[in-house]
Amino acid sequence: MARLLGTIARGKDNRHIEVSALSSDEVAMPAGAIAGEPATAAEAAELADRAGGNPIFVGEYARLPRGERALDPVVIRVLRTAAVIGEVIDAAATTPRGCSRPGR
Q1: How far is CA 69 from CA 2, 7, 11, 54, 63, in A?
Q2: Cβ partners under 8 Å of residue 54, min gap 6
Q3: pTM of the prediction?
Q4: For residue 28, is pLDDT > 80?
Q5: What is the rounded distance in angstroms from the CA atom of residue 21 to the CA atom of residue 60?
Q6: Distance between the two ends of the chain, CA-based, in angstroms?
Q7: How far apart are CA 96 and CA 28, in angstroms?
């Protein structure tokens, strides 16, 4: 992650914008709107915790069907990284060192 942030910081027109983490109350409304059904207080609290309050990750996580929202911590770390990278992601950049990718 440090390497990624360093690369981003050196970009010609890139800027660092500090965005505070969303609280569970702040997560409930967009998560419910994106999922198409209201988020319970417990779901909003869990989502805020799992997403680290990251609004982009909250949105992507809320798109998952309810039964698929219990993600492995490694997957959550990859998705947090992907949320700041953008739409095109190099799989090699998200593979932890020492881990092999499927099909390799």
Answers
A1: 27, 31, 34, 16, 9
A2: 21, 22, 80, 83
A3: 0.54
A4: yes
A5: 15
A6: 23
A7: 31
